[in-house]
Write a structure and sequence with these properties.
The protein has 455 residues and is α/β, with parallel strands linked by helices. It is built from 12 helices and 22 strands. The chain is globular, with a radius of gyration of 22 Å. It starts with a strand and ends with a strand. It binds zinc ion (ZN). The site of zinc ion (ZN) has 4 residues, from loops.
C-alpha cells in the first residue's frame, strides 16, 4: 500500500490524503480522504490552484470526514478535473457541506473579482459533485472494492463528523479528520480507536492543554455580565458549524438558569442560521448536557432575546440597537464576513469586548488581534484595537494534547506501528511528535508535501 499527503502538511488547512491499496484481485485502487481547501489566503496566487499531485481521473472514490472547508473545499475542483467516483460522507455532513461549499464559492467569486483572477471551480462543478455524493451512517460497512473495507466513526468534532477506518491488504489505517474536544455540551464523545496499524492524525492543538469545561462556561458568563454592566458590545466571531450552536446552547442555559437579563443577542450569519436549522433536523445525532424544555419561544438553539438576521437589511438594523448587546457573526477567523463590519464599528472602544472562541490561522485578522496587534487593516481601513480581547480555548472544536493521546492509544493495547502527524502548525506537530514518541514508544512521522510512504 502507498500513502501520500497532498495538503495540511504545511499548516492546518487543505487536508487531502491518498491511499493506494490492492483489492482481493490484486488491482490497485486509489482512495482519497478529504479534499480540503487552503484557507487564510486570497484567491490570487492561491495554493488551491496548484496541481493536486495526482491525477483526479485516477481517483476511484473520495471519503469526506466532515463538512469544514479545509476538508471539503477542493472537492468541486477535483470534479472539474475529471474525478467521477463516489463521494462518501455521513448524512448530516451532506447538507452542511453544501452550505460550506456554496459559501466558499461565493467568497471566491468576490475575491477573484478584486484581483482579476480566475475562480477555482464553477457552480456547475459543485452541483456535479453533489450528484456523486452518497450519504452513509456511522458503522455502516462500505466495501467499495472486494477486500477493501471502509467505516465512518463518530469524531465528536461537529454534527456528523467522522474519523474513518480502512481495512486493506491485512492492515488497518485510520484517518482522524478532526478530533473533537472533550465534554462538548451538544455532541457525543469521540469514539475510541480499537486497533490500527497506521494512524493519520491531526495536531491542531497537539502542543497544548485546554482549560476545563466549567471554566469555559464561567468565562462566557463573565463576558456577558461585563457587557451588561458596561452597557457595551460583546462580539463573538463564530464558526457557522458547531461553535455557533454550542454557543447558542450555552447562552440559552445561562439565560434560563443563571443570568436574569433581557440583553439582545444577534446571530448575524446567514450560513450559521442555515446550519442551525440542520442541527435541529439531525437532533438525533446530538447529545445534550441538560435537557431544555421546548416552549413557544425556546428550543435548544433559540430563546427570548435572540434575533436571527438573515438578510442584509436586518443585519444593518443591529447598528441601531442600543447596547448592551451580543453579536455572533462569521467568519470565525475574522477573515471576511459580517463580523468585519462590526469590528470596524466597535473594536476601537475600550468598553467593548471581542471574545475569541476558535483557532485563528496564520495570516488571518483574527490571529493578528489574538497576538496583540494594536491596529489592523479591514477593507483598506485602519482600525485601532482598543476593545478588550479575551479567548476561551475550551470552546475549540479540536481535542488537545491529552485528548488526542488518549484517542490514539488503542483499547486493545496494540500501539500503531506508525503515526503520521498532519493538520497543525510546525511547532505543534514537533511538540506532539516528541510527546507521542515518549508516551507510546512508536514511530511518529511528520510528512512533507507530496511525500509518499510504503505501508
Ligand atoms: Zn474541522
Amino acid at each position: 500500500m502507498k500513502l501520500s499527503f497532498h495538503g495540511s502538511v504545511r499548516g492546518v488547512t487543505g487536508s487531502c490524503h491518498l491511499l493506494k491499496a490492492k483489492d482481493v484481485d490484486g488491482h490497485e485502487r486509489q482512495l482519497l480522504f478529504d479534499c480540503g481547501m487552503y484557507q487564510g489566503e486570497q484567491m490570487c496566487g492561491s495554493k488551491n490552484k496548484e496541481e493536486f499531485g495526482f491525477d483526479p481521473m485516477d481517483i476511484n472514490h473520495l471519503f469526506i470526514t466532515h463538512p469544514h472547508a479545509d476538508h471539503t473545499g477542493r472537492t468541486p475542483k477535483l470534479v472539474k478535473e475529471g474525478f467521477r467516483g463516489k463521494i462518501y460522507m455521513t448524512e448530516p455532513c451532506v447538507g452542511l457541506s453544501k452550505l460550506v461549499l456554496e459559501d466558499a464559492h461565493h467568497i471566491m467569486v468576490e475575491d477573484s473579482k478584486k484581483c482579476g483572477s480566475s475562480v477555482l471551480y464553477e457552480l456547475v462543478d459543485l452541483m456535479t459533485a453533489f450528484d456523486q455524493v452518497e450519504g452513509v451512517g456511522y458503522h455502516e460497512e462500505i466495501e467499495p472494492f472486494p477486500g477493501i473495507k471502509v467505516m465512518f466513526h463518530d469524531a465528536g468534532h461537529v454534527l456528523g463528523s467522522a474519523f474513518i477506518s480502512v481495512k486493506a491488504e491485512g492492515k488497518t489505517i485510520i484517518f482522524s479528520g478532526d478530533i473533537g474536544n472533550d465534554n462538548v455540551p451538544i455532541l457525543p464523545d469521540t469514539e475510541q480507536i480499537h486497533s490500527a496499524d497506521y494512524v493519520v492524525c491531526e495536531s491542531t492543538y497537539g502542543h497544548r492543554v485546554h482549560e476545563g469545561k466549567v471554566e469555559r462556561s464561567e468565562r462566557l458568563k463573565l463576558a456577558i455580565e461585563e457587557t451588561i454592566k458596561n452597557k457595551s458590545v460583546l462580539m463573538i466571531p463564530a464558526f457557522s458549524i458547531e461553535r455557533t450552536q454550542e454557543l447558542l446552547y450555552e447562552i440559552n442555559l445561562l439565560l434560563k438558569n443563571e443570568l436574569k437579563t433581557n440583553i439582545q443577542i444577534y446571530l448575524d450569519s446567514p450560513m450559521a442560521i442555515k446550519a442551525t436549522e440542520l442541527y435541529r433536523e439531525y437532533k438525533n445525532y446530538l447529545r445534550f448536557d441538560a435537557p431544555i424544555l421546548e416552549e413557544k419561544d425556546r428550543d435548544f438553539f433559540s430563546f427570548p432575546g435572540l434575533h436571527e438576521t438573515l438578510d442584509v437589511q436586518s443585519s444593518k438594523q443591529i447598528n441601531y440597537s442600543p447596547p448592551p448587546k451580543i453579536i455572533i457573526a462569521g467568519s470565525g477567523m475574522m477573515s471576511g464576513g459580517r463580523i468585519m463590519h462590526h469590528l470596524i464599528r466597535y473594536l476601537g472602544d475600550p468598553k467593548n469586548q471581542l471574545l475569541i472562541i476558535g483557532y485563528q490561522a496564520r495570516g488571518t485578522t483574527g490571529r493578528k488581534i489574538y497576538e496583540g496587534a494594536k491596529k489592523v487593516k479591514i477593507f483598506r481601513e485602519e482600525v485601532h484595537v482598543n476593545a478588550k480581547i479575551t479567548a476561551i480555548g475550551a470552546f475549540s472544536a479540536h481535542g488537545d494534547m491529552d485528548k488526542l493521546t488518549r484517542w490514539i492509544s488503542p483499547k486493545d493495547g496494540k500501539t500503531p506501528e506508525k503515526i503520521f502527524l498532519v493538520h497543525g502548525d510546525p511547532e505543534s506537530k514537533e511538540v506532539f511528535a516528541t510527546h507521542l514518541r515518549h508516551k507510546l514508544r512508536t514511530d511518529v512521522v511528520i510528512p512533507g508535501h507530496h511525500d509518499v510512504f510504503e505501508l
